[in-house]
Amino acid sequence: MPAAAVDPRLLRSFLAVAEELHFTRAAARLYVAQQALSRDIRRLERELGAELFVRTTRQVALTPDGARLLPHARRVLDAHSALLTAFGRGGDPERPLLVDVNSPGLFGIRVLDRARELVPDIELMARYESGLTGAAAEMLAGHLDASFGRFAGLDPAVRARLDQQPVRYERMAIVLPEGHPLAALPEVPLSALTGETVYAGAGNPRTPEWTDLARRLFEDRGIRIAPPAPLAVGVEEFQRIMAKKGNPILAVVDFPPMPRTVLRPLVDPVPLSPVSLVWRKGLTHPGIDALRRAAVELGEAGGWLRPPDGGWIPAGDALVMNGP
Questions:
Q1: Prior bond of 257 cis (ω within 30°)
Q2: CB 282 within 8 A of CB 162
């Protein structure tokens, strides 16, 4: 790839390491994992055909090529920031940030709560909708700032206009009516669902990325996806419709409790729902920085990005979660 096509994100990674001369501090400054930062630096070195840092166990130092790149990187990033500001995409740091956490009770609200602690003077407004596909359309239209979900499930043309930070591998689960034969099990093997019809959001225009994940999981396992149900708005309506249909529901282990149901983790294999924090490309706002930092802090404390042994995830999702 020619140097003219270098991603500004790679230059930001380079600048952070060049100024900190320490990968751990640079990663913390950018709110990314150190492994992801190292990958960015290696990629930039490949694209430029030059070694930019001398790394030892004791120190990090700029090479002559790295020192030569430094002023150019600063000028490019300053120009990039000015361009975004000129076209109204830099973000107003005083305005509230609107975040779709997709559903009450899920881990996204924990990230939001921690972000609020980090920037108490910035208003972070939550809403509870459903699905990254619907949220992505609103982000691109400028009606929403950030959301959470399965980034690999978005259309590639949409992904190209958004930024993302991997946050968590969520273990998937099944919600069963209390009287279902499998409800007595502490965990439900996927093979036990053979012959079942499971609700996975089919027909919901806001959640096709979730239905696609279910389709990939159920493929060749004899598990059917339930046909579209009436589109419910709000938790109570969703619970009423699901109770009326009576199908098991594909969910995640943090799914909010529903009346007269039990939630059981899925095993053999352990299916994972990959979740990223997603925002509009070019958006700069202290609330976005706080969300990214909160996700890293909570993820490191909770091991959110350490998939369990025997975990299942589509190959394309693994590429997204592991970075370029």
A1: no
A2: no
Residues 123/96, Cβ–Cβ less than 8 Å: yes
Task: Give counts: helices (H), strands (E), the chain.
Answer: 11, 13
Task: Determine the Cα angle at 246 with ends 241 and 249, to 5°.
Answer: 85
pTM, two decimals, is 0.74
Tokens describing residue 176: 């069963």
Q: Is 230 left (phi over 0), alpha (psi -120 to 50) or beta?
A: beta
- Exposure string of 143-180, with b = 16+ CB inside 10 Å and e = fewer, is ebbbbbbbbbbbeeebbeebbbbbbbbbbbbbbbbeeb
Q: For residue 302, give the nearest of 270, 269, 275, 268 by alpha carbon.
A: 275
pLDDT digits (tens, 9 = 90+) for 296-320: 999 999 999 999 888 999 999 999 9
Q: How far apart are CA 141 and CA 21, in angstroms?
A: 39
